[in-house]
Amino acid sequence: MMTSLPENDYFHILDNKFMQVKALFSEFDLPEVTLYPSPSNHYRMRAEFRIWHNKVEIYHVMYDPITQKRVRIDSFPVASKLINQAMTAIIPLLKFNDILRDNLFQIDYLSTLSDQLLISLIYHRKLNQDWLIEAKQLKLALIEQGINVHIIGRASGQKICLDQDYIDENLHVLGKNYIYRQVENSFTQPNAIINIEMLSWAISATKGMSGDLLELYCGNGNFSIALAQNFNQVLATEVAKASVKAAQYNIEANNINNLKIARLSAEEFTEAINKVRTFKRLDGIDLADYQFNTVLVDPPRSGLDSETLAMVANYKTIIYISCNPVTLKDNLSELSKTHKIKHAAVFDQFPYTSHLEVGMILSKID
């Protein structure tokens, strides 16, 4: 949580954690590691705030991770300029509207570089027709202030969308424009500028590769859509239904004709490729039609499970995108027995924190 940013110290902080990450992997034969800095402010495309009610006043709050005390947030330089604009605009509109503010306890914001915004208002009460009428007026009032917004109301077991529950991002990567549908309450890359850098790095590093690409944990198709140009065929897997639906839209919107999505977890795909189980969700996809030379994994913070780790070790090339360098190191202890690190990059997804995203491309040892 940061209500102000030590921007003058940004590169000093970044250099320190960059050196720590390189030291973490010192036991491996690392090539030169490329560092990709983030913008020093307004880099986060989503933010979530609790709403505090104090008599007639309401305001955004976050909780200090150390003291657990609430901190009033009137501006948030970590978040995009569009989110900050909406934060300033929405509080006066909610403040004197009893229907919209009653039992409102959280507001989530999701924005894009293409200046689209999704606002989720989350309540401790059931929402009715009166709420819907007032929410439509709220949307119009925000649009009048130049904010291209869609609004969602949430309560326990209830979700009301004003028009839609998604926004479309447009990313310019190496001279091409990519459209990515982003669905409310689903995973998206939080730092859009760094996401562009990750996609650019991955595209450049995989040029000239042969065969087909398998991607596990594909989300809305973020990597597989951009990388499809470098492979004959791509098969991507994702378990979350909303993300799979978004990925299928993104495939069509980007005119990708060599990419298919299967709704499987990494563990399920491992069982399918090893012919341990068959899955109806693979109907229409014959794994025997693919010649997978390359696999891309972007796993959760826990890293790859042992079965998936053993499975990906069979591939000629492994593209590993990691949000947790510690579990990446653990996985590398096994993968380094069969592969060497060909390319390595570090991406500052979360400035001013201890976190760094790491990308590595591993090649099978002859």
Explain what this protein looks like in three dimensions.
- With 366 residues, the chain is α/β, with parallel strands linked by helices.
- The protein folds into 2 domains: 7-41 and 187-364, Rossmann fold, CATH 3.40.50; 46-167, OB fold (Dihydrolipoamide Acetyltransferase, E2P), CATH 2.40.50.
- Helices cover 30% and strands 30% of the residues.
- The chain has 10 helices and 17 strands.
- The strands form 3 sheets. It has an 8-stranded mixed β-sheet with strand order 1-16-17-15-14-11-12-13, with helices on both faces. A 7-stranded mixed β-sheet has the order 4-3-2-5-6-7-8, with helices on one face. The protein has a two-stranded antiparallel sheet with strand order 9-10.
- It is globular and about 70 Å long.
- The chain starts with 9 loop residues before the first helix and ends with a strand.
- The mean pLDDT is 95.
